[in-house]
User: Which sequence fits this backbone?
């Protein structure tokens, strides 16, 4: 499968060097301060910028079938009032993430009907939302980071946290793939 964009993509979608100075509200509010860790996924300008960027990329790469709309490789999910209003009841920052991915997927579907949006269930978003469901145009890559880094010699179903996440995403009907780390970070030489 060809990706127009793969992996952690928030920085590429809304580059901090281009926007943060004039628009800190595009980025996550953490403990009362705007940071560039993640995007504010309820900001309508962030959605507009991301959709425009994705469409431009897909026009350059028309053969691609997937485009990643995924958090940066760190924590710091947005805690602004609008994001908290979604993530609080959903019990996870995956609430705003899946909502945002659904909106991007819907915005590109007419022009790019063959493309699906891929996102990461990774770090803080490994737990699925309670009521928000990924559309059939969204693919969730469930990452083994929480499993593989803490318990490097166990198979996936031997850790309750990963098993629960996998069953949870399945229960809400998510199209799911597994991003399994093939490196052992505790014993790297192995």
Assistant:
């Amino acid at each position: 499968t060809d990706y127009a964009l793969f992996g952690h993509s928030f920085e590429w979608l809304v580059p901090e060097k281009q926007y943060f100075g004039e628009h800190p509200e595009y980025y996550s509010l953490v403990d009362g301060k705007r940071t560039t860790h993640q995007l504010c996924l309820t900001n309508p300008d962030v959605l507009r910028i991301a959709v425009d960027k994705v469409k431009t990329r897909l026009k350059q790469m028309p053969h691609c079938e997937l485009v990643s709309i995924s958090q940066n490789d760190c924590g710091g999910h947005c805690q602004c009032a609008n994001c908290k209003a979604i993530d609080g009841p959903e019990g996870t920052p995956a609430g705003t993430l899946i909502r945002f991915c659904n909106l991007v997927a819907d915005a590109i579907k007419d022009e790019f009907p063959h493309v699906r949006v891929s996102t990461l269930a990774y770090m803080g978003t490994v737990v699925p939302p309670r009521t928000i469901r990924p559309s059939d145009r969204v693919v969730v890559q469930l990452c083994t980071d929480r499993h593989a880094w803490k318990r490097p010699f166990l198979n996936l179903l031997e850790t309750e946290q990963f098993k629960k996440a996998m069953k949870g995403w399945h229960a809400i009907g998510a199209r799911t793939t597994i991003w399994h780390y093939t490196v052992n970070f505790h014993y790297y030489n192995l």
